[in-house]
């Protein structure tokens, strides 16, 4: 919840101004927190009439931002995914414009998918990315482009994102599909509150010169899909849909759905939480789903 986030977050440095490119689910939560802490935030969407849009930026149109949009901006966060060719649309469109500004910090929301399949092992920021999925290869290419841009970049790698209105609760409420059981398979997750909280924490650390170039943002408890769905069903007082073994379910899965189940890893947050002293708002899916339930009432 925003009130809990504000209580646990420090304001950004004095005279900061944050521009968020791609103000979707995560971007809007980050913007809400930063505004509540007293910092000016601008959020872009493809269309100005979209929820939370302060300015329109459609990277597919290759148009620059109005100069006034970047006026006095000190911090930038890009939430915009790679284009179909694997290029970063922000850098290809706005790269020169951004480099002309005196930005203090630039963040890029990436994915822990760049680590590839690790057979359930823990992965840290020191592990060499070995993406197998094409979408993850595109993400890694964008990470490298940002790192080579000359901008003061920090890469934030995220696992599965959930939060109010977008969680296992909605799946249980609406799904008539069977649940899939794949023994040994786990997924890492992060509540959107902690994406926002960790982003603010990292910006403040960067102002003090503490600046790891890549950071994982994940909760403490990688878990199976069945565990999460079972807890969601319990919270709602509903029964789980029928359970189907993965080997059977895989025969009718779409390529995208199948790719979701082909990778197995546990994402470590030790750098964020132990070395950088960030305190998670939701350290596991139980806490996160309870918050989602309260937020939906």
Briefly, what is this?
The chain has 297 residues and is α/β, with parallel strands linked by helices. Helices cover 36% and strands 16% of the residues.
Walk me through this protein's architecture.
The protein is of the alpha/beta class. It has a single domain (2-162, 188-219, 266-280), classed as NAD(P)-binding Rossmann-like Domain (Rossmann fold, 3-Layer(aba) Sandwich). The protein is built from eleven helices and 13 strands. Strand 4 (75-78), helix 3 (89-99) and strand 5 form a beta-alpha-beta unit. The chain is globular, with a radius of gyration of 19 Å. The mean pLDDT is 93.
List keywords for this structure.
36% helix
Strand residue content: 15-25%
Can you tell me the CATH superfamily? NAD(P)-binding Rossmann-like Domain
Question: In which order are the strands of the major sheet placed?
Answer: 3-2-1-4-5-7-11
Domains, number: 1
Distance between the termini: 13 Å
Number of strands: 13
* CATH class value: Alpha Beta
- C-alpha Rg, in Å? 19 Å
Shape: globular
Helices and strands, with pairings:
Elements: H1 2-7, E1 17-21, H2 25-36, E2 40-45, E3 55-56, E4 75-78, H3 89-99, E5 105-111, E6 122-123, H4 134-147, E7 153-158, E8 160-162, H5 168-174, E9 179-181, E10 189-191, H6 192-207, E11 214-216, H7 225-236, E12 243-245, H8 246-249, H9 255-261, E13 266-267, H10 270-275, H11 285-296
Helix pairs in contact: 2-6, 5-7, 7-11
């Amino acid at each position: 919840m925003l009130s809990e986030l504000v209580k646990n977050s420090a304001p950004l440095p004095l005279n900061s101004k944050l521009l968020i490119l791609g103000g979707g689910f995560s971007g809007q939560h980050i913007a809400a927190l930063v505004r509540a802490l007293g910092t000016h935030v601008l959020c872009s969407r493809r269309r100005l009439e979209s929820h939370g849009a302060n300015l329109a930026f459609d990277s597919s149109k290759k148009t620059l931002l109005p100069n006034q949009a970047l006026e006095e901006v000190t911090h930038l966060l890009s939430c915009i995914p790679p284009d179909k060719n694997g290029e970063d649309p922000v850098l290809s469109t706005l790269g020169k414009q951004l480099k002309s500004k005196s930005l203090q910090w630039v963040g890029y929301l990436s994915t822990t998918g760049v680590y590839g399949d690790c057979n359930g092992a823990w992965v840290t920021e020191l592990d060499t990315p070995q993406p197998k999925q094409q979408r993850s290869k595109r993400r890694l290419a964008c990470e490298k482009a940002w790192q080579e841009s000359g901008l003061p970049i920090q890469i934030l790698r995220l696992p599965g994102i959930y939060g109010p209105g977008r969680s296992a609760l909605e799946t249980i409420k609406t799904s008539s599909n069977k649940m899939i059981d794949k023994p040994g398979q786990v997924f890492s997750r992060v509540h959107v509150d902690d994406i926002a909280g960790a982003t603010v924490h990292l910006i403040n650390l960067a102002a003090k010169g503490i600046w790891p170039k890549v950071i994982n943002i994940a909760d403490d408890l990688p878990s199976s899909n069945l565990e999460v769905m079972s807890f969601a069903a319990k919270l709602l007082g509903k029964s789980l849909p029928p359970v189907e073994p993965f080997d059977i379910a895989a025969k009718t899965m779409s390529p995208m759905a199948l790719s979701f189940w082909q990778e197995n890893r546990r994402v470590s947050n030790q750098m964020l939480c132990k070395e950088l002293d960030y305190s998670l708002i939701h350290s596991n899916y139980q806490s996160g789903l309870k918050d989602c339930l309260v937020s939906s009432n």
